[in-house]
Target: Biotin synthase auxiliary protein
Amino acid sequence: MISDIPALPAPVGAGVYNVYTGAEIGSASGSTIPTAAQLGLEPPRFCAECGRRMIVQVRPDGWHAKCSRHGEVDSHDLEMQR
Ligand SMILES: [Zn+2]
Model:
């Protein structure tokens, strides 16, 4: 289904919840799965795997997001996959 997209860390890549709205993917409001490129522009707010609100720190050069269950994601990790 998303075979052309490189694997993302679970908190942004699981595709269960929309990382910007927290809405369940597949519901009317949650159908957009972010790509690494989109994540480079705007930090995720919710964990894609469990829908929890993540702790997000925005830096001048990127962002860092942490789910208490599924771990941390840094925008630098995503950049390495491009
Ligand atoms: Zn999570």
